[in-house]
Write the structure tokens for this entry.
Amino acid sequence: MDFIADESVDGHIIRALRSAGHTVQDIHESDLGAHDERVLEIANAGKSVLITEDKDFGDLVFANGSPHSGVLLIRLDGFPPPD
């Protein structure tokens, strides 16, 4: 499965997915500082599922109807949610 990892995603998750054989594009490596709209465009263009801890993507996808190939909101136990 192909994923795009937003800047909010911990590196441990990216490494674990890659180790499991998934393709993961890390926004830290390719488009650091990209706006949420751009990150969603990148994910959609590659037909990749976006992994994020940022609830703003829910507004883009559900409220605004932006095209997407899936958005996975994660919250890790023991880690504070991002601001």
About this structure: Residues 36-45 form the longest helix (10 residues).
